Automatic annotation (TrEMBL):
It comes from the Bacteria. Residues 68-124 form the Trimeric autotransporter adhesin YadA-like C-terminal membrane anchor domain. It comes from Gallibacterium anatis. It is found in: Cell outer membrane; Cell surface. GO terms for cellular component: cell outer membrane; cell surface. It holds the Pfam family YadA_anchor. Its main location: membrane. This is YadA C-terminal domain-containing protein. Transmembrane segments: none annotated. InterPro entries: Pilin-like (IPR045584), YadA_C (IPR005594). The keyword Ubl conjugation does not apply. Keywords: Cell outer membrane, Membrane, Signal, Transmembrane, Transmembrane beta strand. The keyword Flavoprotein does not apply. The lineage of its organism: Bacteria, Pseudomonadati, Pseudomonadota, Gammaproteobacteria, Pasteurellales.
Amino acid sequence: MANKANTLSTENRGKIDILTNDVRAIKSDLSNLRTDVNQNRKAIDKNRKRAARGVAGVAAMANIPSALPGKSAIGIGIGGFDGENAVAVGVGHHFENGIAIKGSISTGNATNSIAYGAGMSYSW
């Protein structure tokens, strides 16, 4: 009887050791997963802010008034989106023959990136 009990105890100890090692591995994996999730959260927030700055820049450029027919113009515009702001400057000319051209550039708060655009239209 004592031998049987010792055998069961040894078998159980081996199984317990295996489970203990598995639990340690799971805890380590969970810790790594938490770290990865936090890094992804930071990257997502950074990209969201970057995108919002871009939208604000485009809004600023879009709000620069166009030149009147036969005239040239320089203008500024401001824009904002999702807590981010931008200012833009642009120039344009509207020719007498119905062709208009425009170019603009914008920059936002706390960023070194610049958005730019140019366009041309023909009206009749």
